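subagent[fold] <- orchestrator: predict structure for attached chain, return tokens only, no commentary.
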Amino acid sequence: MLTLTGRTSILALQLWETKTAAGSTSKETDKMAELKLMAGTWAKTFVATALSTYLSVGLQPDYILNAALVSVLPSVINWLNPNYERYGKVK
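subagent[fold] -> orchestrator:
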């Protein structure tokens, strides 16, 4: 599983700011905004489900991880759906 530490996320943000300042197009900026929206939705769903599973079954990592991963599936399905207007893959 990939985890970002505080230092790694700061470096990634600095790299993104450098690329943006170096002349990225507005299309790239719009795409990044869409990706941030999507990732935020997935992260909120994942964390909320992991927390609720932990509170109901205790510290059982397999149950927590399985429930959290499965909870993100509807958002992934929406993302793959070209007709979904929020962040679906547009034709």
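orchestrator: received. Logging for downstream: Residues 26-91 form one domain. Helices lie at 6-21, 26-57, 61-80.
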